[in-house]
Amino acid sequence: QSYCHRLQHDMYFLTSTSRLNEQVVDKIILQLNRVYPQILTNEEAEKFRNPKASLHTRLSDLLKHLQKKGDRHCQEFYRALQINAEELFNDLPSRKVLKTPDPTEIDTDKEQYMLNDRGPVFFLACFSVAAGLALFWYCSNSDTKVVGRARRILGFSPIIIGRHVRNICMLYLEDISRD
User: Hey, what's the signal peptide range on this chain (predicted)?
Assistant: First the structure.
């Protein structure tokens, strides 16, 4: 959907009951006047910032003017609106239409949640088991003389692994050292 069509769709929402205040509209107009490429000329910016006209009239005229100018101008308006009034930008009807999911698409947020529903404790438990298995494998190698070092490491690890697991590891290391 082009930005001009989106702006036409959002026009009533933007101009209704003081969604945009005077300062925000002035900031948007000034940004459109100063951005490269210049969207509004100095004369146009002064016309849309005229305090004698009502805010509703000025905003309606600005939106109609941008629609006549083309898609690039409407796109820059949306960019200025996002910078100066992000909450309003996120509440636009055209944004809500863009956010509604296609029933044939996979909802990646839901899929991500489904894959990660176990939490950080599960990850830490799996990591601890893997680290313990790696340590056992390394210590069971008869060519290395690390049993004493491994025993010291396991002796200081009641915080990292449970007391029962540590006792089992110590018994295993004692059995290896006897052989």
Answer: none
Q: Within the chain, which residues score under 70 in pLDDT?
A: 17, 36-37, 97-117, 140-164, 166, 179
Pairwise CA distance, residues 93 & 14, whole Å: 10
**Residues, the chain, total?**
179
The H or E element containing residue 137 is helix 119-140
pTM of the model: 0.54
CA atoms within 13 Å, Cβ hemisphere of 138: 12
Residue 105 DSSP code:
S
Q: Which domains, ranges and CATH numbers included, belong to the chain?
A: 3-97 (1.10.533.10)
Quick check: 81 and 89 in contact, CB under 8 A? yes
Give the residue ranges of DSSP H helices in 16-92: 22-34, 42-48, 55-69, 71-84, 86-90
Residues 6+ apart with CB under 8 A from 4: 67, 70, 71, 74
